[in-house]
Amino acid sequence: MALLLLVCFGPASGQIQYEGIPVPPYEFYEALLAYADQKDFDSFPGALKFTLPLMKYLDRTYGEGLEAQLNSAVKDRDPARLMGSLRRVLYLDLVSHLQAVAAGPEASRQDRAQMAFINYSFLSPEVRRLSRERDAAIRRAFRDLLAGRGGAGVTAEAGRIEKDIEAGLGWGHP
Questions:
Q1: How many domains does the chain have?
Q2: Owning domain of residue 83
Q3: Inside any domain, residue 2
Q4: What was the pLDDT predicted at 108?
């Protein structure tokens, strides 16, 4: 897995949402999730500063004010809201990769699908806690997408994965 992470998230990953971030995204996601899980409200803002280009990109693209939500949860020392907002960041970053898989050139599809799956690996424990079957189905769909076996076509497969994750986190339709 470490080699896969380095290949996908090395300095040359070339994704606009990561420009200016000095570490691979999986590293700051691991740190942010650890701080949130440990209720380390004092360390979280320092780690969040590394993600400002990503936060600005997600806010421009999806308009959810994620950075403000995270900062508010830290200020209020609300671990549930902090973790929920952080999961939303991971999800929307994952969605941006899935949309690029569906709309992007063939040459970049595999890399973007791998990046989406790595983001899912951070969300998977929560989906699995709510439904082991749904988590297994999402993982199978990612395997098919990564293997180029998107039965309903790449665009439809990416859209289905997005909706399944949203539902798996309790945000969408079952």
A1: 1
A2: 15-168
A3: no
A4: 79
